[in-house]
Amino acid sequence: NAGVTQTPKFQVLKTGQSMTLQCAQDMNHEYMSWYRQDPGMGLRLIHYSVGAGITDQGEVPNGYNVSRSTTEDFPLRLLSAAPSQTSVYFCASSSRDSINSPLHFGNGTRLTVT
Amino acid sequence: AQSVTQPDIHITVSEGASLELRCNYSYGATPYLFWYVQSPGQGLQLLLKYFSGDTLVQGIKGFEAEFKRSQSSFNLRKPSVHWSDAAEYFCAVGLTEGGTASKLTFGTGTRLQVTL
Fold this sequence. Notes:
Chain A is an all-beta fold. Chain A has strands spanning 4-7, 10-13, 19-25, 31-38, 42-51, 54-57, 64-66, 76-78, 87-94, 104-105, 109-113.
């Protein structure tokens, strides 16, 4: 049972480069989300999706794009990376967008922007 | 808007000793409360949650937490810590009115170190 799979685990980018962080879940979950984790800041929500074709902004969406073309996948795109985007990124999913549905997290992607 | 505070950034305990991690929240009503654990190199895993009812909730790995409305707290406890409990622990608060996963607010985390 794979759960939530994130790739890559590590990535180094130069300022201005673009990349996509991949997230896939095999639990047929409706709700998927992206968080960034920074020291002393906890987890902050970037974008989320309540189903295929539906996305919305979280607390810190600037500099990031998302799409949800399938139930399984929820990629996060950095169009022009900045050093401020150096962080650990987590993808999470749950069966539905309800506080009663527990979140399942991937193992994270550590991104460094130089 | 709700908020959550974890006053301790880093705690060190000896193996076998008891543990209490503090969590305080701010919310106008009784919130939904959660504790998550993040082991090194891993994602977050749900330890326990409080929605209503008994204020002492049991979780996985021998952890428990007590909701105290008068103190706006939801402290995590374990009677005897094992070396494998070394990890980062996050408290989170969710809305009870129209609560959604996207409205979950995480604390800044407490890193637990266990000495042998």
